[in-house]
Amino acid sequence: MAASVHAQVAQDSTPHAVDTASHDSTRIVPWKVGVIGAASVTAAAAAYGLILERGWWSGPNSDFHWEKPSNDFHYAHNLDKCGHFYFGTWLGEGFHDAYQWAGFSEFSSYALAGLSTGTTHLGIELKDAYAPTWGFSVWDVTSGTLGGFYPMARRYVPIPFAYVDIKYSYWVNHTDYYDSPTGGPNMHVWVDDYVNETFWASIKVHKALPEAAQPYWPAWLNLAVGAGIDGRTFSERIGAGSREYYVGPDWDLEGMFHPKSTLGKRALHYANMIKWPAPAVKVYPHRAIYWVFPTEVTF
Fold first, then answer.
1. Could you give the 3-state DSSP secondary structure of residue 102?
2. Which one of 103, 135, 157 terminates a domain?
3. Are residues 145 and 211 in the same domain?
4. Is 14 inside a domain boundary?
5. What angle do CA 34, 118, 61 make, to 5 degrees?
6. Is residue 225 a part of any domain in this protein?
7. Phi, psi (5° rounding) for residue 185?
8. Which of 120, 144, 222, 227 could form a disulfide with 250 if both were Cys (CB 3.0 to 4.6 A apart)?
């Protein structure tokens, strides 16, 4: 039994490595590093022009200032920190794959991915520091940076991280955020619509079970716990509204499909970072059962 448990941990310790055997040593290809740099600058410019400038920074600049604790710790009931962490995991995964492609060692790829993600969030917060409506938030940078290092934690600290998938669901059931005066009528962007966003921790039950019990639990069925907020958060005074918590089944695509190619495995991994529609139960602040969450069809 001890040997089988050790084998299971060893197997789970590489949930999304990319050809690790061929990346044990550093064989950096300079032109690929240049491609990564150019792509990063292009993506940052596109995000700035299409989302960030329109959503948060379109007003006049101010002097450098810190985010007020009264806003930082009450805005969206801190669900925005979950958002920074989740999208940090996306950046961490993307940077990791890019650095591996450029020839960096596996460990270096993970470490550089976390640092690159942290640097990206630092740049955003430095811009926020000069925006009159916002300010520099240490907690936003911390949340995003931790998200960037989460892929590394899954690889090198398999218990518990390799057994928990971080996922996201979004569906416009309410327009409270878009109808609110938050930031002005031209400053609404979907990534800030926390009323309709839910962040999930999806537990890989099949992996967590003892080997003898695994045949009795499908590998494609996870148990997820989610957090969101209600519409009053944006329609009333700061601090109004409430957190909402959910539980429900989750489809583990990586336990459902088994592509052979590295590209197919990575594509499936990214698809598995989304919480696909499934039944769910709201357990707080009141109970409701959803037929197909995130659409608001209850009974």
1. coil
2. 157
3. no
4. no
5. 95
6. yes
7. -65, -20
8. 222
> Hey, what are 20's tokens?
């690790």
pLDDT tens for the chain, residues 1 to 299: 444 444 444 444 444 444 443 444 468 999 999 999 999 989 888 777 666 666 555 666 777 777 877 667 778 889 999 999 999 999 999 999 999 999 999 999 999 999 999 999 998 888 777 777 777 889 999 999 999 999 999 999 999 999 999 999 999 998 888 887 654 445 677 888 899 999 999 999 999 999 999 999 999 999 999 999 998 887 666 567 889 999 999 999 999 999 999 999 999 999 999 999 999 999 999 999 999 999 987 66
Torsion-angle region of 103 (φ positive above 0: left; ψ -120 to 50: alpha; else: beta): left
Q: What is the pTM of this model?
A: 0.86
The total of structural domains in the chain comes to 2
Regarding whether 281 and 229 lie in a shared domain, the answer is: yes
Task: Kindly state whether residue 216 falls inside one of the protein's structural domains.
Answer: yes
Among 143, 34, 24, 130, residue whose Cα is nearest residue 81: 143
Q: How far apart are CA 148 and CA 211, in angstroms?
A: 31
Q: Determine the Cα–Cα distance for residues 32 and 76; give it in Å rounded to an integer.
A: 40
- Host domain of residue 48: 29-157
In a domain, 15, yes or no: no
Considering the domain architecture, whether residues 148 and 257 belong to the same structural domain is answered as no
